[in-house]
Amino acid sequence: MTYSLTPEIASRFASIALGHVRREYPHKLDHVMDGPEDVLGPKALHPIFYGSFDWHSCVHGYWMLLRLRRLFPEIAEAAQIRALADEMLVPYKVAGELAYLDRAYTGGFERPYGWAWLLALHGEAARHADGEWAEALEPLARAFADRFRHFLPRQTYPIRTGTHYSTAFALVLALEWAEAHDAPLAALIRERAQSYYGGDRGCPGWEPGGDEFLSSAMIEALCMKRVLDGAAFAEWFAGFLPGLDEGQPQSLFTPAMVSDRSDGKIAHLDGFNLSRAWCWRAIAADGDPSFAALGERTAEAHLAASLPHVAGDYMGEHWLASFALLALTGHGDGT
Fold this sequence. Notes:
Layout: H1 7-18, H2 42-45, H3 55-71, H4 78-88, H5 91-100, H6 113-125, H7 133-151, H8 167-181, H9 183-197, H10 216-227, H11 230-240, H12 268-284, H13 289-306, H14 314-317, H15 320-328
Helix pairs in contact: 1-3, 3-4, 3-6, 5-7, 6-7, 6-8, 8-9, 8-10, 9-10, 10-11, 10-12, 12-13, 12-15
């Protein structure tokens, strides 16, 4: 079976996100309290991104909604998405989100995962000519771009985990935004990615970890595919994963098993399958036909394992469809 994004799936994903981006509770805050006056609820702290269980999931919930509206303007939910964006993605609410960054102890707020998703949201908003959402979001996007600009030169070592702290995942999303909106940042990302990963060889593929939602190996490979030209990437990739032609490491071809989807951390493994499918498709898309076929087969196996589970329990429902959308649109490159 070949999985692709259809209007029916788009409508389902949109309905899921419309049901949670303004659902305030339950909520997991990334918030440091400097005194009793800082004991506040999500909506008081974040005028826009107070839903979806946590800030970053709410951000990429909005990203997904805007992207679905652009790709499938005919779905029934498109009008609701437009109304939501007109109500929420407005300057005074963005100013409230921006003000949060001026609080004490917010230097590490959502670093780097939320930073990257906010840039992705602004980049998607900029593709909608009939809305003023990108203009409203731009000050917040610039603030997070500045955080990348100041942090990356100080980050001596990449974080290779398959969770929110992944350096490679953040660089993939941030680079896509920067190539369209901030050429100096794009150059910095390319330099840092090659510094972090350019010498990597013989990746053992020891994954997944028990709560990971990214393949540390494949997201690093996708990052390098984004920053190197075709021949340079082919040479790097052959050294990074030299046994792929023999099906090694076997772990990279095997979907994760999810034992308990009501456990928020174990449910991460559905995201692992979806994001690995995205990586396989994106890396194999313009390779030789045999490797492209291998990538597609592997992606399909991972999609089959987790695409049926994007809804059903809120621990996965508040975020998984965004990763399914990355996988189903293949490249995650703004298509």
